[in-house]
What we know:
By secondary structure, the protein is an alpha+beta fold. The chain has helices at residues 2-8, 36-50, 53-65, 107-122; strands at residues 12-18, 23-28, 77-82, 85-92, 95-102. It has 4 helices and 5 strands; from the N terminus they run αββααβββα.
Amino acid sequence: MSAVRTSLGDELRSVVYFTPSAFDILYTRQDLYGSTDDARTAKSQLVEFERTGFAEGPIRTAIARREGGSDIGPYEFTVRFHEDGFVVRVIHGDVGVLFTTDSMDVNGFEDAATAVTGLLDEN
């Protein structure tokens, strides 16, 4: 969590670690939810949706590597733009991390995603 916080600062809203079958909220900013149960309820649907990345990432990488493909390299992470913030998904093998932010400059996302990937590599 500290790697994401260092990269994104006070705009960070939440960090969620997830697998295909479970998830754990690592961080939520204090002003967002009244309780841990409220946060879990709010994040459960988002996590369920983002689990599609376990199937999506390998397919995107395979398409990019295919002869005559787009030559853009392997899939790394997803940033979803919303009116007032962002959702970022990083998947590495059978684990993933989601983080949400307020609206901000997007340059910090690559730093945060790279830091998360490095941490997931260690596990």
